[in-house]
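Forum: Protein Structure Q&A
Topic: Joint prediction for protein chains with partners

I've read a bunch of threads here and the consensus seems to be that you should model interacting components together rather than docking separate models afterwards. I'd like to see that in practice. Below is the full input, 714 residues plus whatever partners are listed. Could one of the regulars post the assembled result?
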Amino acid sequence: MKLKSALYAVSALVSVTATATIAEELTIATVNNSDMIIMQKLSPQWEEATGNTLNWVVLEENVLRQRVTTDIATDGGSFDIVTIGAYEAPIWGAQDWLVGLDDLGDDYDYDDIFEPVRNGLSADGTLYAVPFYAESSFTFYRKDLFDAAGIELPDEQMTYDDFAEIVAQLHDPDNGVFGTCQRGKAGWGENMAFVGPLVNAFGGKWFDMDWNPTIDSPEWNAAITYYVDLMNNYGPPGATANGHNENRALFADGKCATWVDATSAAGYIFNPSESSVADKTDFFQAPKQVTDKGTGWFWAWALAIPTSSKNQDAAKDFLAWATSKEYVELVGESEGWVAAPPGTRKSTYANEAYLEAAPFAETVENSILAANPADATKDPVPYTGVQFVAIPEFQGIGNYVGQQISAALAGQQTVDEALANSQRFAEREMTKAGYIK
Amino acid sequence: MARAVTPSRKAFTTVVAGLLGLMMFFPVLWIFILSFKSEGDAIKAPMEILFNTGWTTESYGAVQERSDYFKHFWNSVIISVGSTVLGLAVAIPAAWAMAFVPGKRTKDVLMWMLSTKMLPPVGVLVPIYLIFRDLGLLDSRVGLVFVLMMINLPIIIWMLYTYFREIPGEILEAARMDGASLRNEVIYVLTPMAVPGMASTMLLNVILAWNEAFWTLNLTAANAAPLTAFIASYSSPEGLFYAKLSAASVMAIAPILIMGWFSQKQLVRGLTFGAVK
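Posted by a regular:
Agreed with the consensus. Here's the joint model:
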């Protein structure tokens, strides 16, 4: 009996010691959005199951980007898990800043992740970040206003010319409805997210095959002239201050007849407690013009592990949990299916409960599957990315061009001047970076 | 002879000053109002927000539920008070020496110290980050106390220097004639006369350190993050967080605002006594 008790005691001690040695404290740096808030709320379940603990560092997107870049570049090791976007994942992966994630365990269903999403987060065939949610862009429109004006949607993807005609018919500022609301706030992730696919639709591209910028091309000029005219004639006043959030608020408040923006905002617009147009909104594909390539953007927020992390195994375990099919189900059941992370897994779009809660699901799925970062322009280009170019220099160039276009929209300069300035800046940056010899 | 002030002129200046004051305070007031609105109401037109929406404390509840306010608050207190006290300990002897025993190059030294404030902080981010990494100071309060002390040191020394210059050197000389040691001279003669200046320097530096957002965001992660990081966690370009961001901002600025109100007299007296005459 004494021996049995002693054995029990020893085994309990071994078990406690083993738990103590494997219990890790992980620091996770993430952005502030509703999906991440849900993840933070549900993560104690993972902590309880594994004995590990998570310290959360939540920062605004641009602050986080700068903070994490500094830490990874200096091998600071402050973070074990970081939230990064589709722009950073392939660049940082190629620079060996991130741990490869092709070994998250046999239970982890890689094939269930949409292929464009997987490709967008890989470099040289290695997956460097696992998607938490993904989005494309499509057109939100007010069914009631379309019906009242007798506008019927074509079966096929409409052109931007058709779109402008419809917008002109619906523009009714006297009754507080603007024909269209699009992003005007400067920034590569703000106005350029809309302008990039617009330029693709008009047959334009950022660089030719020799990495020479082509921002002063007739295609860019046609696209930006269209954008400036559309917004000045049928957009809300002060559109240069409007980014995603401002337009989202305007649309939800019934002030916009159309809005081309992130598919991930559909859940919000469909939520009657946050939107006054929840039962009056529907969606169609973002318009095309001379080509239908690259007309809807591609973006994903994903989780990655910096190579400087000292707790990589535990971090991988968390990633496998937070981006799994089971996690999507957990969110659906605990938070409501409309809140399930969209755009990443085929199984989500095969789930009856999700399809019922999210009537926009099929359009979102089609938009994401149609967004191909590897083939987003009419002519061949040396880069990948739909609304961005996956090179480190793009952030600076995109921001500058965004400012120039915003200034053109505000009437501070002409479209020609904005594009000429942008071209000069891009040429200088690309020469400095060694792309142009 | 004092110039006569007519009642109409007095009323005019009062109205202008009041309007200017309101303009300066309005952003804080608006944040306060938004913090008591729901997210849906917080994005409505200003007049609608003021007159057609209800009031709620749900944002404060949501912020407290998601973030550990008191942890950030204590980090802010320790970092701002710690860096100010350490800064004063270094600056008082330095300012004394330059004010009462000036050398040939005192003016140059003062200007050189001020010139360190002319460099954008991001220019030295990577070197400081590497030093912190090697010394194990990343995400530590000790590291931040030290960095904020260094950053505010030129301002502390300049302010104290100008206050000390106002004090006649003869008084100190008299104390020395009476046999006071250097220590006694500083503690019993200089300090009582310089208290208003030292108090305003201290208050101003606590405020500067409390609001410092570059280094406190870049050198912290989970453990040493002060209230600046607490606010930053509610800012988002995708998703509506205006009400929660406002609530977080009110919670972050309230302590320093209250402290500012209570110490307003000393602050103004100190500022007008020396540096910014």
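The CA atoms of residues 138 and 274 of chain B lie 37 Å apart.
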